[in-house]
Structures are given as C-alpha cells and as structure tokens.
Structures
1.
Amino acid sequence: MSAPAQRPRFGNRRLVRSLAVAGTGVAMVALPLFGATAASAATTGTTAAAASTTAYPDNLDGWIRESLDVMAQNGIPGTYDGIHRNIMRESSGNPLAINNWDSNAAAGTPSKGLLQVIDPTFQAYHVPGTAFDPYDPVANITAACNYAADRYGSIDNVFSAY
C-alpha cells in the first residue's frame, strides 16, 4: 500500500498575493540642431507612479496580516489581537488542525484550520479573492472573521468557541 499524499507547503500552493510594479519614469528633451533658439526647444516628460509591493511571510504573523488587508478591502472588522487570540485557542496556530471528536465531527463535518471552521460555514462566508480551501490560512481566517462579524459584530467579540 502506498503512503498517503502529503499536503504541499502553503507557500508552494498559494498564489502570490502582491502587486507587481509596472512602468518606469522617462523624461525626454529635444534639443535644437541648427539656428533654433533655446526658447524653441521642446521638452516633454512622462512619469509613472511606482506601486508598492506587499510581501507577507508564510507564517502565522504573515497570514494574519494578509487576512487583515483582505478584510479591510471587504469591510470585515477585526484586529490582529482578536484574530491571534482566537487562533491560539482554536488551533494553537496549526493551519492543518482538524477536530475529529466534537459534535460537528460526529455529524460528519469536522472543524478545520486555524480558526476551526466547518465546511458549510466556510462555504457560506468565503471571501472572494482568497483560496476556496478551508486549510488555506488566509482563506480560513477571512471566512471565520466574516462569519464572526455577521454573528457577533467582530472576531474581537469572540472569547470562546463560536
């Protein structure tokens, strides 16, 4: 019997979520060759604003920070401390955590990921732009925070299993 397939590391399967910088500033000056005065020389210029790039580390701190950026873009409230507190209680920071013993698991829908979300909740509160995978750390955090915002006003208001 062959060994079960191992999940790839998150950094290898997640899309890079950063903004690429495009464009360069260019300035051109046309100088007169014969008989023209300095006043007749044409000057043109074009510039492009450089966009900033945000790179997130592939660890708990990076996942939370990336989630907060996605949440801000989607109007989902929550703070770093509120998210971190709940992650440490629910999964101790393990994105592959699964609860195979509680009432959800007994009903066939175990809680998964950093914030222990069950599949129906993940599907209902998934945030577009994140992976559709409850084990993806950013997708799990943003879906759980979206759910907590709907139910409790914010993940910051959650102090026990939810």
2.
Amino acid sequence: MRSNLLELMSTFVQVVELRSFTKAADALQLHRPAVSKFIKQLEDDLGVKLLHRTTRNLSVTVEGEEVYQRAKALLNDVGDMMATVSPNQPPHGRLRISAPLALSHTILIPSLREFQALYPQIEIVLTASDRLTDLISEGIDCVIRLGELVDSSFISRRIGEVQMATCATPSYLDKFGIPLTPGDLVHHKAINFFSENSREVMEWKLVVDGHVVSQRPGSTMLVNNSDVLLSCGLAGMGIFHALRTTVESHIDSGRLTEILTEYATVTKPVSILYPDRRYLPPTVRAFVDWFSDVFASKHQF
C-alpha cells in the first residue's frame, strides 16, 4: 500500500467534486501535472479506470463513483479521528451546504459572517436553490429543508418552523377587491409555486373554524423559484402565499398588503439533513449546531 494513499484519494475526491483537474489543482495548491500523476497512480493501484477524460469533458466511471463514495467517507472518518484526538484543532476544510432560496436570503446569508468569524478555516460552498438536491450524487455535506421530510435514509434535525403569509399589492387589491374568506380566493388571480422535482403545485393551508383547509387557487402564473414568486407578487400579478420572512419587509414598507389575517396559516417545518455517518465531520457538526441556534433565536413563536 502506498504511503501517500490518503493524498491520492483526497486528490481524486477533489477532481470528482470540482469536475476539473485544473480547479482541483488550485484547491489543493498543486501543479496540474501532479494531479494527473496522482489520479493515474490511484487507477494503477486499483486496476480500474476511474475517470473518462476528453479535452472538454470529465465524467466518473461506475467504478470511479464507488471509489469516490468510499474515499470521501474514509477521508471524513480520518478528519473525525484527528479532531477527536486533537480537540484543540478547530474545524477546517470545505463545507458544502444546500438551502432554499428564501431561507438563504433572509436567515442564512445575513448571519454567515458570524459563522465565518467563529470558524475562519471553514470554506463554505453554498448551493441556494428551491430544487431538492441529492446529497450523495451532488456531494452535499448537509442541506436545509422546508416542509415535511421524505428522505428516510438521512439523519435529520428539526430546528423549528416558519410562518406563511398571503399577500398582494395594494394596486391589485384596489382593482380586484380584498378577499375576506379563503373561499373568496376562487374569484382572484393567484401566483402559485410548484416543485421543480415533483411538479406538484404547493397548497395554501389556512385554519378555518379550527380545521386546516387546503386550497390551490386558480393560477394566473406558476413559478418554481421563490425569488420569482416574490417578484411576480410585487409586480401586482396576483395574490400569492409565501414565507413570512420573505415578505415581512415589503408589508412593513407598504409595497404589499397581507390579507386573510383572521385565518391562521399552517407553519412549515425547517430541518437540517446530512448523510448517515457514524462520525459526523466536525465542519458539519459546527454548522448544524450554529444554524440551529441562529434559527431558534430569530424564529421563536
């Protein structure tokens, strides 16, 4: 067994995740020929081809995907061991996070300077998207999720809930009237959000006489992006249902008017997920604990 096996595996993991020899070399502070040499050494030792390479494209072979998953898990375990036996060593390295756009804008990003001050040796790679990311295939360390969870194969920590609000611009309400009950929504234009993954349109859930009533008002517009949902709402294209944290400042400024305030909305749970590993990497543990505290401090109902 080569004495530099961990270095070979670390280089291979970087190449796979960055999909580039040049970017991996930059990240590892190596010359590009050294990265190519390490990958060839690993392929020779294993006796399999790990990567398909052309002048423009790089893809992982079936065997390469298996080696990648195992190598990453092993490198995480090594990092955990070092952190365990060296408790004074602060968490360091790259942390890949995925979070919904709305939570990224309003909660995560405004607080990230605090995290960076606490853990200056952690490099954050943030994927902000309303698409459900695949933690394993996309190499994500942890993901913040909205709504009820269906990923039973992952470890999850429910950190709280966010409130919803139903809004429209004053100009829209002046023109089409203000709905006084959830039933009145059928007479209005709605901007609806749909899941990019399932294509399912999000229901608007309100509490009427102690019972949860789910509605999908007729759409004048369907969008799969929470930024676009807010932009359409601010443009006066119709009534919409969104996270209160994304519309609150616009309600306060008068650009939006909250409606149906006599009917409570059903909150959405917020959770953090990460792959099932026996030892949680110190970078992930630090982020999960920190964000849980940040969220609790900002969203106590």
3.
Amino acid sequence: MLPEETIDKSVFEEIPTEKIYSENAIRVGTFLAGPLVAGYCISENFKVFNDLEKAKKTWLFTILLSVLIIVLACLLPENIPSFIFPIIYVSITSYFLKTYQEKEIQKHLSNGGETHGGWRVFVIGLLSVLVLFSVVLSFVMLADYV
C-alpha cells in the first residue's frame, strides 16, 4: 500500500522549484551572526510559501528586535555574559520557526523541494554582521558627537 501512496503523492503534489532555508541553517546562522540572518531567511521562506504579508511582518519584527538588542547591550552592565544574546535570539527564532514555518518546511522537503546550501547562509551571516556593525558604529559616533 505504501507504493500506491507514493505514486498518488507524486501525481497530485507539485514538486517545489524554489529553494528554502532549513530550520537548522537558520538557527546556526542566527547564533553565529545575529537576528538579521533569521529575519532574512525566514522572510525569504515566507516568500517561497506565497505569504508576503508574513514576510513583511518578519522584517518589521527583525528590525525592532535588532534595535532592542543594541539598546540592551548598551544599557546592561559589562559583567553580563555576552553569550546570553545569541541564546535569546536563537530561542526566539526557534519559536517562530516552529510556530509559523515548521509544517511548510516539512511539506516542502517531503515534496522533493530543496534547501539553500550552508555557504549561502554563511555569506548572509557575514553581510548581516557588517550591517549590524555599521549601525552600532553609527550610534557610537552619533553619541560621541552629541
């Protein structure tokens, strides 16, 4: 009976042509490079899943979270361990992935869809770090000026 289910599935289910970001790639990229990686990858997945409204909301939430993290990092005492921040935003990312994309990602993969490679997430991570560094440097320079 299992082969019939496979045949039925392959006849009636469309094989995805676009690639998505896997949950693990998003989590690792987020841990290593920050919340902008999560925002970009999750947003791109929503676009593949044809949910443009959630893609926009993802960017809004990502920007707000990034600003909050920068402000918290400036206000918290220096004796707070720095690894707390990656743990916090990976936890938030994992929650949103599980809540909003886990089923779609599994469906995509089970229908034969592919994921982007790790190098692509690595490059996105590097760009994310550059953007975040530029923003923080701008705030520091602005604070010195004022």
